[in-house]
Amino acid sequence: MANSSNFRIPNIIINDHILTYFYYILFIFILNSLIFHQEIYAIDESFFVNSFFEKLKYDNNSLIIDFPNSNITNLTNNKEDSIYAQIGAFENNVYVVWQESVSKNLPKHNYDIFFIKSNDKGKTFSMPINLSNNTEFSERPQIAVSENGIFIIWADEIDKNNKEIMFTKSLDNGATFSKVINISNTLKNSNRQEISAYNKNVYIVWQDTQQNNTNSSIMFKSSIDGGNTFNNSIELMNNTDDSFPKISSYGNYVYVVWNNENKENSGLFFVRSSNQGDNFEKAIKIEYTNSGESQIAVNGNKVLVVWGGLDSKNIHNIYFVNSNDNGSTFTGLKTVSEKITGSSNTSDYNQLTKIIKNPLNVEVNNYNLSYIVWQDTISQQNQDILLTLSNQTDNNDYTKILNLSNNIGVSECPSIAISGNNVYVIWEDFISGNHEILFANIYIQT
Ligand SMILES: [Ca+2]
Ligand SMILES: [Ca+2]
Ligand SMILES: [Ca+2]
Ligand SMILES: [Ca+2]
Q1: Which end of the chain has fewer beta carbons closer than 10 Å to its terminal beta carbon, N or C?
Q2: What is the 46 CA–ligand 4 centroid distance (Å)?
Q3: What pTM, to 2 d.p., does this model score?
Q4: In which order are the strands placed within the sheet that holds 422-431?
Q5: Lowest-pLDDT range, 28-32, 188-192, 252-256, 312-316?
Q6: C-alpha of residue 130 to centroid of ligand 2, in Å
Q7: Structural fold of domain 39-443
């Protein structure tokens, strides 16, 4: 009996162990399939290396190349109104924020700010996190990413005449976010916010507008401890009209650009700080006339300022200026049309100026290449998302234009992020009767 017991006991233990192990494996399998089914799948970059990129590089028949629809991912895919998405990237990570209606169980019209992330260069995305999760109308999220964290802002309508800029950050790669804080904290209407981050430095600009007044101030606020504390706000300019301040940073430099439609002082303005936003030099006017909503991107000492039109102002081309000395001096005015064709006297130039009809919501990113993405009018009913790029190091001209959305209906409000050879563009599209956030991963072979 003793022998038999001795023989059997270990067997039972082993069986129990195997059973426990089996249940564990089963549990993991079920958990995995649950998580997996909730993830969003995007396309693989290998496609582009073999076919799309070759077409982009060698197709001489067309100035505009259609991006394949089959390689666009719907990131939201819900019945809610999903709009105004922005994207950030760092190493293999891609982060997306957007504004979405959350009408369920609420007496009033409400939107919240949602966040998703990918850890595999946009192949799969996590489930959304609601960052604002409040009853105020939450709008226009912006995102900045550095090796020190993910920094996100948006505007909450506290009451009818007062919006405030809200801030949250994640220091664990988007797993959790800090308590939301009010950055602007003024009685004026605070909106049109933008954010930039460099290491632990976080910089925010917005527009503060007095009640019943179109004139507004360009406001700036900085943190040099990863968004734990913020310095007092600085007013960069007052008495501006229809301004859309934009911000970028690198090293100790902080750069801000904005448009001013106020007739007394109209133009495109640029100002920089060389001491992490402690104070700013005198603002300069980059362009006196013809300016619209601008964007700015920085890589090392290279500064690129780009602008298209406004809703109220059609300027028929995309303009830009470069600086190679941290914004001390800028090149003369250039247009994307002439940079692609090399001359304003060619038929290609004329063709391009027909393609670039009314560029809006221009976004730009500076890496080894610089990229410009915008929304443009294809027909009365259709707008599409267009992208072009240039090789900065060789100072080459811009290449062809890619039509990324390439669909019927209004595609609008693009945002771009770059990490390595991956260029990520998202935008808002009206498909199946509601707005969705669409995602394109353009693999650039260099
Ligand atoms: Ca939707
Ligand atoms: Ca809300
Ligand atoms: Ca305010
Ligand atoms: Ca379209």
Answers
A1: N
A2: 26
A3: 0.87
A4: 72-74, 434-443, 422-431, 411-419
A5: 28-32
A6: 9
A7: Neuraminidase (2.120.10)
